[in-house]
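Appendix B. Extra example for self-study. Work through it before the problem class; the solution is given directly after the inputs so you can check yourself.
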Amino acid sequence: MAHDEDVAGSERTLYPYVTGTSVIGIKYKDGILMAADTGGSYGSTLRYKSVERMKVIGKHSLLGASGEISDFQEILRYLDELILYDNMWDDGNSLGPKEIHNYLNRVMYNRRNKFNPLWNSLVLGGVKNGNKYLGVVTMLGAHYEDNHVATGFGNHLAVPILRSEWKEGMSFEEAVKLLEKCLLVLLYRDRSSINKFQIAKITEEGATIYPAYSLKTFWGFSAFQNPGQFAEGTW
Amino acid sequence: MFRNQYDTDVTTWSPAGRLFQVEYAMEAVKQGSAAVGLRSRTHVVLATVNKAASDLSSHQRKVFKIDDHVGVAIAGLTADGRVLSRYLRNECINHSFVYEAPLPVGRLVVRLADKAQVCTQRSWKRPYGVGLLVAGLDELGAHLYYNCPSGNYFEYQAFAIGSRSQAAKTYLERRFEAFDKYSAEELIKDALFAIKETLQGEKLTSSICTVAIVGIGEPFHIISEQAVQEMVDALETREEATAEQSGGDMQDESGNPDAAAPMEEI
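Solution. Structure tokens for the complete assembly:
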């Protein structure tokens, strides 16, 4: 009986409410570029249209999140405190992207061990002392680094494109073009994505999150003409 | 009759603004056998004098590895030194667990100093009776710190603590300006010379000293006794050679047989 009350008396995230979809991150010549749309879905309803899902963390890092938006906001509170206390030492040391990535991994893995996960996939990119860093942490505490990463649907739709088209030392323009290609594919095939995107960059000089903009779409592809053709039972 | 009224516990001030118990703890550091540390831009070397408590016993360890990037040399109560070393190891390992990166040396030293300071402000505690030379490497370069029982800490280019450390300090003060550009080998040589100063004529052998080093591309490690003996032997043959060469010229410097000075030219 006491055991039942313990469970009833605690609150956990059992499923997400307001969610963001894919985030894509790639390395390029001067640093890291990240892209995401600004949609916030309430279940399958596209409820919010301008949610910023990429934020600057400290001096050297950029964080992008898909998944539960409120959990992302909680993570941002943790990181704000972490960076504040780091700055308060005022000793010339600062947390770099590698440190933040590992910290986030510890936080995510801890929460999942409490059966109360932070329902996100996080992309952490940054540059410190000339080293570019790009990695992912999932809600289960799985983590990895790569030259190009994507979360959620992006893992299925963007990563194959990145694998064939990403090159070492791409220029800013080339890299943005590649990101936009991926975003467009996601826009066509991921029903929770919206046509309002942000791109963020971080280099040795600092981070910039660009204002949201739309991509030009073309819906005249023959594959789009009769969507129910090979899917019996749809209309 | 004239017993000191102000030294019965650490938190009692004397009218002159002193804390006697803290000062006594600082004395404990001076009683311990000597430890020296010196730093270049890329490396830090620690060296200690090992004194056995009795002919029948071995000597106690004075150099402790804290992490790959930090090590300490202690003078004073070894037992307290070991407790603090364990604390430092814990701090380092926790930091690398959370951030997968080494703890900056300056931050480690502040935590140690804060721990020591608490003992000077609680009536039921006693200060640690140990001084620590903390050698470490981080993003900002090589560092050498001295932590004392009072909770104060200082960063040094070179320093010596423990019994007869004044002689080593004098030696280091004459030479520290060149240390920044030193190689690891040159640092070790000067560490050995500084240690020799504290021995007051006793013969320097590898069995009575421990030498440790940390630097870029070189995790903290204690140099093997055999390697130290080879370096001691090399110093002695040089010393003899220069003594023969210059004969009476050494006279004015013989107070501190500064055999190291001619080595600069080599």
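Self-check: The radius of gyration of chain A is 19 Å. If your reasoning did not lead you there, revisit section 3.
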